[in-house]
Amino acid sequence: MEGCIFCKIISGDIPSKKIYEDDKVYAFYDINPEAPTHFLVIPKEHIESANTLDDSNIDIVSHIFKVIGKLVVDLGISDKGYRVVNNCGEDAGQTVKHIHFHVLGGRSLQWPPG
C-alpha cells in the first residue's frame, strides 16, 4: 500500500535491521526497543489490522507465530519468556496501519503493560 512505512521496509525503500524473511513475512528489530530483544514480524501482504483479517488472509497469523517460535529460540529468549503484542486500533496504540506483532524479551516484563 502506497505510503505505508512497513510496505516500504519490505520493499527495501526504508532500511531495517532484518532478522528473517520468507515469501510471506518479514521480521526486523524495532528502532525504539522497549526490551533487550524487541523485534517485529509483519506480513508482506498489506493487511491493515486484526480487524481486517478474514478467510482469505487469516492463515498468515499461524505462519507468523511459527516464525516467532523459531526466532525466539534462535535469539535465546524462549526459555526465560517473551511477550507477543498486537496493537489493534488507535486506543490500543497502533501507529502503523499494517498488522504487526511485537516480540519482546530479555528482561522481566511487568503486568499490566500500561
From TrEMBL:
InterPro entries, per database record: Histidine_triad_CS, Histidine_triad_HIT, HIT-like, HIT-like_sf
Record protein name field = Histidine triad nucleotide-binding protein
Annotated HIT domain residues: 5-114
Give the active-site positions: H100 (tele-amp-histidine intermediate)
| Short motif Histidine triad motif, span | 98-102
What is the phylogenetic placement of the source species in the record? Bacteria, Bacillati, Bacillota, Clostridia, Eubacteriales
- Alphabetized Pfam families for the sequence: HIT
Extract the GO molecular function terms from the UniProt entry.
catalytic activity
Taxonomic superkingdom: Bacteria
Please give the PANTHER family that the UniProt record associates with this protein: HISTIDINE TRIAD HIT PROTEIN
